[in-house]
Amino acid sequence: MSGDSKIGPVGGVARTGPLRRVASEATASARAPAGIQAVQDNLPAARLTRLSTSLADQPPPVDVARVAALRTAIDSGNYGVHPAIIASAMLDFHGRGTE
């Protein structure tokens, strides 16, 4: 049995075009009046996009000397793990369960 010509083939989904057009920021800002552009720039998504772009442009916060010292200590077997210190630091970080 074939599908109804008004509905289309049974089980099939047909789309004639995109659901929503997405313009680039340059195109959108060129068309938007100044007041609307100011509101668009304050939207959380726009702020997060700018933040992620600025963070991506920065070098990673890595202390190369500290990493080299830790690798040397691990390779030589001199790196000690102290579970009590680690547990205490974790509890301090999470508030020691006082809530």
Description:
- It contains 5 helices and no strands.
- 0% of the residues are buried.
- It has 99 residues and is mostly helical.
- The longest helix is centred in the middle third of the chain and has 14 residues.
- The radius of gyration is 28 Å and the shape is elongated.
- It is 54% helix and 0% strand.
- It starts with 24 loop residues before the first helix and ends in a 6-residue tail after the last helix.
- The mean pLDDT is 74.
If you average the pLDDT, what whole number results? 74
> Poorly predicted ranges (pLDDT <50, ≥5 residues)?
none
- Biggest beta sheet attributes: none
The outline comes out as: elongated
From the alpha-carbon coordinates, what is the Rg to the nearest angstrom? 28 Å
How many β strands by DSSP?
0
How helical, in percent, are the residues?
40-55%
- N-to-C series of helices and strands: HHHHH
The termini sit apart by 65 Å
Number of continuous helical runs: 5
Estimated share of beta-strand residues: under 5%
Class per helix and strand makeup: mainly alpha
Label this structure with key terms.
99 residues; mainly alpha
Blueprint (SSEs and pairs):
Elements: H1 25-31, H2 34-41, H3 44-57, H4 64-76, H5 83-93
Short summary:
The chain is an all-alpha fold. It has 5 helices and no strands.
